Amino acid sequence: MRAVFSLALLLLLALMLVSSEAARNKKEKGKGSKGASDCAEWRYGNCVANNGDCGLGVREGTCDEQTRKLKCKVPCNWKKQFGADCKYKFGNWGECDSTSNTKTRAGTLKKALFHSECQDTIQVSKPCSLKTKPKGKKGKVREN
To answer: For the chain, what is the domain count?
Structure first.
């Protein structure tokens, strides 16, 4: 009985040693292949949509002889004019220009992502709204 217990204990210790060694090797293997890189100056290109000219896509980065691909998104709305990598702080919309039926607002560069080349200031416009928003309480008015 004592020999069986000793053998079981020895097998258990051997199993624990093998599994801890395998876990350590797996952890070290993951460190080298994932995001660890000796390169400090990654340069990224523009986001290129997978289908069409907007939506989900991929941006490619290079550093020395290494390349890396990152998932990204190309906006499908008016922001497409200045790109998704240029972040701007916008002022309020101006008054409606009756000749062009548009209103405009200016934006100043807040952040350029992925070393993008962005304009310092931009101006965007949109069509004037035909409806005027009612002032006062929202909802239906009850009549008695």
So the answer is: 1
Q: Does the residue 143 lie in any domain? A: no
Distance from C-alpha of 133 to C-alpha of 48, rounded to nearest angstrom: 39
Long-range contacts of 51-57 (CB under 8 A, 24+ apart): 53/80, 54/80
On average, the pLDDT of the chain sits at 76
Q: Is residue 33 part of a domain?
A: no
Whole-number pLDDT of residue 33: 41
pTM (2 d.p.): 0.47
- Would residue 37 count as lying in a domain? no
Please state, in angstroms and rounded to a whole number, the distance separating the CA atoms of residues 38 and 73.
27
- Tokens encoding 73: 């998104």
Q: Whole-angstrom Cα distance, residue 44 to residue 39? A: 13
Nearest one of 66, 65, 14, 69 to 45, comparing CA atoms? 69
| Residue span of the structural domain in which 121 resides | 43-127
